[in-house]
Amino acid sequence: MARGRKAAVTALDGALSSAPPAPKWLPSHAKAEWRRVVPQLVVDRKIAAHELGTVEAYCLAVANMRTAEAIVSKDGPTYVSPTGELKRHPATTLVKEAVEASRRLAAELGLTPASRTKNKGGAVGSDEDDALGDI
């Protein structure tokens, strides 16, 4: 498989025109993240209905990160095992995995500084570099 640049994401023809409510099954931290990012994705025309699963996965990763980090904050990053060894708390691995997943999904959605330059989005007529943008 050839490697190369990731494709630039542009405004979608089938982009959502209004932000749907967060799915009821999402945990509270995930719903809060949904309410934070989905309205902007809709305004920027960067999300279609068939892509909401990616947003759900991103919001769930953020919620898992926050939940695991709360455990690490409460219990500490290490613990003493029954054999007396100092070991890394298992929740630190959960934090790391959730951070990696949320960063990867945020980039796909154009939510990171680097991905925003590739993810143009925008409504018709908003592309300043395109002379036909107002058509």
TrEMBL record:
State the source organism's domain of life. Answer: Bacteria
**Annotated stretches, region: Disordered:** 110-135
**Could you tell me which Pfam families the record lists for this protein?**
Terminase_4
Which segments show compositional bias classed as Acidic residues? 126-135
What InterPro entries does the record tag this protein with?
A: Phage_term_ssu_P27 (IPR006448)
- The protein depicted here goes by the name Phage terminase small subunit P27 family
**Gene source species:** Rhizobium indicum
